[in-house]
Specification:
7 helices, mainly alpha
Length: 196
């Protein structure tokens, strides 16, 4: 959970937000995906706002990033690796929670993906950027793969633990390949002026 606070706070620091902006973006990143999943699954109140713990962790991550942002720069790749594992965990637990609430396995996989990427999408929109998940870096696909494996395990009648472990490994592997090998999803090759 702490990984999303760092990513939200890091972008806010890059954009030179004030302290309140950093803390707000850290909190939004932390809760948006889970709230979306919980509301769509009927799990209300959403877990992210049911206690003060989420807010406390978001504030801690935001403060850490606000005050030590320059010191984090040499660790950018390490933060991305930490984020890869966090994305995987959000996706598999999101899918499993949706399945627990009786959501169809295909839509549970989508909600698992949303659990992992929802906060990042809102973060980028609030910061005035095109969402990272729309820019060909396998972020959403890695989350969907993890959540899809969990849903497939449910459809096959497997114990939840093994699909969750396999989904976590698959998502983390895909993100590591992106970080170290530069794999990307193909991008549209035409330019806007060519469509006329």
């Amino acid at each position: 959970m702490f990984r999303v606070r760092l990513r939200g706070g890091r972008l806010a620091a890059q954009k030179r937000f004030d302290l309140f902006g950093v803390l707000l973006l850290s909190f939004v990143v932390a809760v948006a995906g889970g709230i979306t999943r919980d509301v769509q699954s009927g799990a209300v109140p959403a877990a992210a706002v049911a206690s003060w713990h989420t807010l406390a962790i978001a504030v801690l991550g935001g403060l850490l990033t606000f005050f030590v942002y320059p010191a984090l720069q040499p660790f950018k790749r390490d933060i991305l690796l930490f984020d890869a594992v966090g994305l995987a965990l959000f996706a598999v637990t999101g899918a499993q929670k949706a399945l627990h609430y009786g959501i169809n396995p295909v839509m549970a996989a989508v909600l698992g993906m949303v659990s992992g990427i929802g906060g990042g999408i809102l973060r980028d929109v609030l910061a005035g950027d095109v969402p990272t998940v729309l820019r060909a870096d396998l972020y959403a696909l890695a989350a969907l793969a993890a959540a899809g494996i969990v849903s497939l395990g449910q459809m096959l009648g497997a114990s939840p633990l093994y699909p969750m472990l396999l989904g976590t490994a698959a998502c983390t592997f895909l993100r590591i390949v992106v970080i170290y090998r530069g794999w990307r999803v193909p991008v549209a090759s035409w330019r806007p002026d060519e469509s006329r």
